[in-house]
Amino acid sequence: MEAQNEEEAKEYLQNLKISLDFVVDEIKSDNNFGREVQLFQLLRLVSPETNAIHPNRYRQTLVQIGAHICPEPAIVPQLVSELFYKIQSISNPVKRAIYFHHELIRIHPFADGNGRVTRIAKNWMFMYDLYPPIFIMDAAQKKEYITTLANSFRGLMKNPNEWNDYTSLFFEQEIDRLLINASFLYESIKQIGNSRENSKINQQ
After folding, report:
1. Nearest CA to 144 among 118, 177, 113, 119?
2. Residues 6 or more apart whose Cβ sits within 8 Å of residue 114
3. If pLDDT is split at 50, 70 and 90, which confidence band does 3 have?
4. pLDDT of 103-142, one tens digit each?
5. How crowded is the C-beta side of 158, counted as CA atoms within 13 Å?
6. Class at the top of the CATH hierarchy for domain 65-203
7. For 80-93, how does the pLDDT look when each residue is reduced to its tens digit (9 = 90+)?
8. Which terminus of the chain has fewer Cβ atoms in its 10 Å neighbourhood, N or C?
9. C-beta of residue 87 within 8 angstroms of C-beta of residue 80
10. 144 near 134, Cβ under 8 Å?
11. Mind telling me the catalytic residues?
């Protein structure tokens, strides 16, 4: 949905597959997501064109998302480091992943590719703790996702230390997506199990 034409869509999907393969290999090696260097690893894989322009660097320009003015470039490294420190104290893996997603998008550390990198990082955390990955499924869901984040950021600009209704709504929407995907996964596993059982019965 971020691609502007068929060629960009193919490249986007190819990079997405490469990124997910990398994440799966890291999980198999018992590596969870939780270090800044992993952000740059994901950026190089999912948005190589951005990394080529600004290799291994956070953004150097001011960025605005709708009405939300992202933090000044000079403080981005500090904010990202603080975010990684904060998530260490969140024991619940679902809350940790969604909180990281919300806050990294709010910081917007890269010149481009922030959404892709953040969603892959979130799914890395989910999958490491045996939850299914979640994705934006269609244009309507993408609009809802963007609107909720924008409203949450707007509220936090007015009251930085107080989460608003839209911040809570973002968590609820993400959890709903997780529950739907967990249900799909359960049904798929159940079908495989039933098929194996039927095969055993037929062989007897």
Report:
1. 177
2. 104, 105, 108
3. low
4. 999 999 999 999 999 999 999 999 999 999 998 888 999 9
5. 8
6. mainly alpha
7. 999 999 999 999 99
8. C
9. no
10. no
11. 108
